[in-house]
Amino acid sequence: MVADLRIDLNADLGEAFGVWSMGDDAAMLAQVSSANIACGFHAGDPQSMRTTAGNAASAGVAIGAHVAYRDLAGFGRRFVDAHPDELSADVYYQLCALDGMARAAGEQVRYVKPHGALYHACHDHRPHAAAVVEAMTLFAEATGRRLPLLLAPGALAHDLAAERGFATPKEVFADRGYNPDGTLVSRRAPGAVITDVPIVVEAMQRFVEEGTIIAIDGTVIPMEAESICLHGDTPGAVAMAESVRAALAGTGANIVSFA
Fold it and tell me: Among 80, 170, 187, 208, which residue is least crowded by beta carbons within 10 Å?
């Protein structure tokens, strides 16, 4: 048993667009403690943003802005060589838009999590990592709220954010494969996405109890994180989320948002 451990479960939600839908947001909201809501640049639209923010607020789930490159066609998974000023404005726009929707539901955006290619750029692309932090700084100056920045351990954007006084919570991915160096396996490569629920559950139990994950080659990687990410678009996502939550509760962990 893990005594008094607090762990967050987050999922990417609100990724519908017009008549096109993805995942079962309502079912996922019953399992997670934080919702990364698409802000219209990689997925989502004003209606989905308002609906998902409202449902998250009703469920008592923390609302996070899942900001991205302007890339609807590529689902935000393609690097966009935007000028840092343009990217900063885009991220600030997304933050403000989702916060407005959240406020209409009696809540507010509680944290920021970049999506897809922007998430990876925040790890080692200094101009774009700085642009994201600049957007968060603008938001803090406008609202008086300094939002946490959720990323993988070792992200350059975390260092830049910490220098400006932002909290820098870290996450581990339940349903993604890891390389021996602790980076995620490319979605173009075998083993990138894990859909076998028992394997995912075993990995997350090991993470909670031992603070390690196993890379695709068997390397044991130390991992420090406050949050576990479960993708809402992974096949069998709801069953996986239910199983992971039940398993973690069985270890004595308390499921609660870091935000």
Answer: 187
